[in-house]
Amino acid sequence: MQAGGKMAEQIPIAVMGASGRMGRMLVQAVDANPSCRLIGVTERPGSEWIGQDLGECLGGPSRGLIVHDDPIDAIVHARAVLDFTSPVATVNHAILAAQARAVHVIGTTGLSEDDLGKLKASSYHCAIIRAGNYSLGINLLSVLTQKVAAALGEEYDIEIIESHHNQKVDAPSGTALMLGEAAASGRGISLKDHADRGRDGATGARRKGDIGFAAIRGGKVIGEHDVIFAGPGERIILRHIADERLVFANGAVKAALWGQGKKPGEYSMLDVLGLSD
Length: 277
Fold this sequence. Notes:
The chain is an alpha/beta fold.
């Protein structure tokens, strides 16, 4: 509540893909934040949630908010869109968010170069905040990764190991790639030209200067990431372990609120946290 007894404005927010692991967490995070108000939710066409009340879908009382399969219904009155869905869906949501001039918070992974080009086009009309991970700890880890990579020479091999649950569909994870980009930036090289993302069989010796990736999938692991700097006689290991998905959802809501009033353009979680250069 503001001074004078007036209620503070609540930012209307839409959540895409409400039935998924992250979708449920995003709904929970929006509901828990007094600065936000959930006004729209979507699900993929064919989902049994379509046309149903969100509260009842989540196993609670009715809340008068119907789940739609058309994102227009959810986005048109929103000032922020939280989107942890699929590349195809996210590109479509970006077009709609640009038309609505809503802040588009993207946690979708597996985006191609073509997808990123389409998101950039949408960013000319709205603020797009995109991150491989929305937790404070991971973003601090990326800053540390960049600084350590810059301080150590090529005699220190960089390896990134990530672990996730057995239902994750892409590898390396978006977070692992974000850490790889941080390491490459510290080294002053292009990750695209120095990423080693697959080893099998007689691969030969490790190419000097490469940044290696390894992915582990199993059980219900939420997210673990190690950045290893292996040098002559020593190893430096930077690690982050996520204990619950709510840290990502809370970070996404923080980003949505931070983006209000920002000029159109592309931003990252480092911008939100004031950690960008």
